[in-house]
Design a protein that fits this description.
The chain has helices at residues 12-21, 64-70, 116-130, 134-139, 143-151, 177-185, 189-200; strands spanning 24-30, 36-42, 44-47, 52-59, 73-85, 98-113, 153-168. The chain is of the alpha+beta class and 207 residues long. The chain has one domain (5-175): Pnp Oxidase, Chain A, CATH 2.30.110.10. A hairpin with a 4-residue loop joins strand 3 (44-47) and strand 4 (52-59).
Amino acid sequence: MYLPPQFKTADRIHAIKLMRDHALASLISVDDTGLPFVSHVPLHLEHDDEKMVLLGHCAKANPHWRYLQARPQALVTFMGPHAYLSPAVYPDLLRVPTWNYLAVHCSVQATLIEDPDQKDKLLKKLIADHEPAYAQQWRSLDSEFAHKMLAGIVGFELLVTDLQCKLKINQHRPESHLAMKAGYASGNENERALAAWIERLGMIPER
């Protein structure tokens, strides 16, 4: 993605927070005609100092897994909070509006997961991310029904080979920061999240 230096961060902690807080990702591959094919899927993140892996699945009826099988290199994008920014935050009038947003792009190498036991483990990790209490219900499902559900999906492991994190919150315009944060702090959910990120990045010095 277009990544001006003032919006680029090399701190993986910021990327990891965005990927976990905004788990519904866009998985982008190339289809058999050479056009981009996109699936919107929740992904489970695992990482250590050596590598980062994303785990997910799609319906077996979704051709995306076939594209991953044929062309394992793909792109995963995560969109964090985003909001309009009015030029009213500046002390002068010679300004224009913009849109602030946080995003992570991951180049990945895909490996399919078709073994039922491995798919079950993958699903339990996603359940633990979003509704741990459901795990007991999943474990107690009729075995024939559970097998049918597992047969209807294809899992995948996405090894992250490159990561870009863009934090675009007008960092290069310090004259706007106080008014921008005040406006966002009283706004909608996305705007309040951006106000929290302004604090997280230390954009307004403590007095």
